[in-house]
Amino acid sequence: MNFQFSPEQELIRKAAREFAEEVVRPRVQEMEEGQYILDDLFRLMGEVGFLGVLIPQEYGGTNLGTLGAVLVVEEISRISAALGTGLQVHCLGLLPVVKFATPACKEKYLPGLATGKYIATGSITEASGGSDPTTMSTVAVQDGDSWVINGRKCFITLNKTANTTWVTTCTKEGKRREFTTFFVDKSMEGYKEGRLENKTGMHGLDNGEVVFKNCRVPDTNVLLGVGRGLPVALTAIGRMGRMGMACAALGTIQASLEAAVKFANERVLYGRPIAYLQGVQFKIAEMAYLLETSRLLVYKAAWLTDQNMPDAELAPKVAMAKYVATQSAIKASDLAVEILGGYGVVREYNTERYLRDARMIWAAAGTGDIMQLTVAREALKLK
Ligand SMILES: Cc1cc2nc3c(=O)[nH]c(=O)nc-3n(C[C@H](O)[C@H](O)[C@H](O)COP(=O)(O)OP(=O)(O)OC[C@H]3O[C@@H](n4cnc5c(N)ncnc54)[C@H](O)[C@@H]3O)c2cc1C
Question: Which strand (E) or helix (H) includes residue 9?
Fold first, then answer.
């Protein structure tokens, strides 16, 4: 067993921490006050190589694998879970292009996805219910050597900021519906953003509808193949989305612990810092366990992904990591709010933001209930 990061992973983690401290921290307030993820932050993340962590070097990426992506998203999320989530969604959006696109589609998009010319997202959820995508009503109909998409997706992260998305559609109706996933860019007529949601947390992160109205997409932009759209979406969500949200949780737990430790050492009651109160120590200890257990599960799931573990075996590992990290972030940020007493709910101390952001993670990329089902199915050996 080897718990050591490679020199490249250490370097990218250090670079991400410096970027988060120097470039992101001064912008957090601006994002909190409603400025959707600032385009220049994405451009800067492209310049330092973060946007291309999953992209092969031949297309201009840094190709540091899932563990590399996990370390960057965690470090950015320690300062801003909104931007960390934005970055992970970009990775989720481009992963099917790396894995399943035609050579023409790779040539066209991957270099720009590595630099920030293109920002990606993934679109599968519809108002009919995200946990059961087979009920979707977005359709694509073949017309010569292209396809025409009509429909509306909801809850899409970066719906305004992203100028590309994969979109899963129904391409054959009937008793056994068939689905196909396409890669679409905003220069194609008929693809645009719809309304934005007003959310509890991650205020800098745009999230809302994307609309397809007679949107024409060339055949070359079919991912994996006609009728194989669900595996494309599930690979992106399973190999990046759930892990990415777990990393947003890790960053939130780390930030909560740091805020609580700082306050406990500075706040004096009964003649000495509250860090000496046993009740406070118990809460700090619990936060430390929550961080360590979540990290071990998330890093292991990322490592297994990089070992190319088959999707069916990987899914419960990733689900367990996402579930534990999410519950831990909710608990740890709540404990931080308590340790700060009245200051815990004062905005400038940030702990109330961590709690609001932690709550955002539960449903994204599959709810906690769906994670539990995935873990239980494996434990019970159900087919
Ligand atoms: C911050 C955020 C970002 C997101 N980003 C994206 C994105 O970029 N792209 C995208 O396509 N989607 C995105 N989503 C959508 C997300 O994937 C869905 O919200 C999620 O899949 C749940 O779907 P739903 O909200 O329609 O809830 P529903 O599926 O309607 O679920 C409602 C309730 O029923 C429970 N439930 C459902 N099925 C079961 C079951 N079998 N057993 C027990 N309980 C069950 C759920 O856990 C939940 O409590 C995002 C969501 C959020 C909150």
Answer: helix 7-19
